[in-house]
Specification:
2 copies of one chain form a homodimer.
Chain A lengths: L10 H8 L5 E2 H11 L8 H13 L3 E6 L7 E6 L1 H25 L5
Antiparallel strand pairs in A: 1-3, 2-3
Chain A binds a DNA duplex through helix 2 and helix 3.
Chain lengths: 110, 110
DNA sequence: CAATAATATATCGCTATGCCATATAAGCTT
DNA sequence: AAGCTTATATGGCATAGCGATATATTATTG
């Protein structure tokens, strides 16, 4: 796992990004983060689920329970219009952040 | 200021980087971070000073008081050999972190 | 068919980072 | 003398993420 503290504050951006194209449930989101980062990034459920509730409370995502035969119930979240705006802003913020750190630490962007 | 939480865990890398080429004192470090990030990144002294003490306690940096006529006393920190190793590791870790986030959020590295 | 693993959600108590506010002290400017 | 800048110091707070534990359903495997 990557530097423990570095990832703080990145979970929101990750979740919003993953919900951009399709609704997903929490467990799926957790796995996708792990897989797509090749195991380098991972969030504990005790972070993920409460964060999803927070995002929903803020109106950035909207969840609904889906029950299918032969499956545990799942709560699927979709991005709201407001969430889409926040995602755009956070993407921008992320880019600026990386640029700032790179400039100070002397890391050239490849 | 950039997303409040995003910057958590980045201060160590910034400080170690700024001490790479020359010893600096805390106040200087704080200003450099602000200037070089064009005001986008800023750390409060209540974060910076305790962090410097922590880094020194870990043996990554070494401080010494410098008193000059016509100047407030300053504590200059230099990077230790151990600190240099940690800096290299943290730079690597940072790069991987950025790569991971970019891959998941669909941000291409420019 | 019983044990185990994987899927899926939920939450308590803890740790760590950074901040606001406040403090001290010295030098510079007006 | 007052106020600004430089420079370090710290108590109490807010917040994100984690370890551990819990519940419940479905799948696998010996």
């Amino acid at each position: 796992m990557l530097a423990r503290e570095l990832k703080k504050g990145s979970a929101e951006l990750l979740i919003l990004s993953l919900l951009e194209d399709q609704p997903r449930h929490g467990y799926d989101i957790g796995n996708l983060i792990e897989q797509r980062s090749k195991g380098r990034l991972k969030f504990n459920v005790a972070s993920l689920y409460p964060l999803l509730y927070r995002l929903e409370r803020r109106g950035w995502i909207q969840g609904r329970w889906v029950e299918k035969a032969g499956q545990r119930r799942r709560r699927y979240y979709r991005l709201t219009a407001e969430g889409r705006k926040v995602l755009a802003a956070q993407r921008h913020s992320w880019r600026e952040f990386v640029e700032a750190i790179n400039r100070i630490t002397g890391i050239e962007h490849a």
